[in-house]
Amino acid sequence: MGALVKTTQAVDKPLVSHGSRQFLTFLLGGEMFAIDILRIKEIIEYGQVTPVPMVPDFIRGVINLRGSVVPVIYLSIRFGHAPTETTRRTCIVIVEVECEGGKLDIGIIVDSVSEVLEIPDSEIEPPPSFGAKIRADFIDGMGKVDGRFVILLDIARVLSLDELTMLTAMGTEKGTAVEAAGAA
After folding, report:
1. pTM > 0.85: yes or no
2. Which CATH number fits the domain that encloses residue 58?
3. How far apart are CA 114 and CA 100, in angstroms?
4. Is 88 exposed, middle or buried (0-12, 13-18, 19+ CB in 10 A)?
5. Using one digit for the tens of pLDDT, what is the confidence trace for 32-84?
6. Contact predicate 71/96, CB 8 Å
7. Overall domain count for the chain
């Protein structure tokens, strides 16, 4: 797995001018999504992901990223959809999320990375209360770009460690119950 893009900007060194923000855009299931560029650590080719037993379906497994174990999430399954087909354009976007002990890197599988867009604050609308194909609390806003909307994700909510831990625990309990029922 080779790095395609790596961001080296520090958080204290802003990437954008006042009044606008930069977002990495990507496709997932034919829809355009975006994540604030300050949350992106790097983008790597989709490669060998090691499965982990007894985890929810949306956790694809883990990768070795320069000696660190990084969990990888099927973003489409996390949104409640079927996994998308893996192609040569499929990437893993490594994002950094806050947790109790500091920061954690998590990989998300996307169909393809598009571009980095600078969106003025005046072109960002609040999230819709209905009509989106994903949970409303996952949406930070709707960016207007060239007459179309881009769904701006609140990646901290999408990858909420508390919620992921709870879902993993439920999946483990479910797996244990299924195993116990099978043994009976």
Report:
1. no
2. 2.40.50.180
3. 32
4. exposed
5. 999 999 999 999 999 889 999 988 888 999 999 999 999 999 999 988 899 88
6. no
7. 1
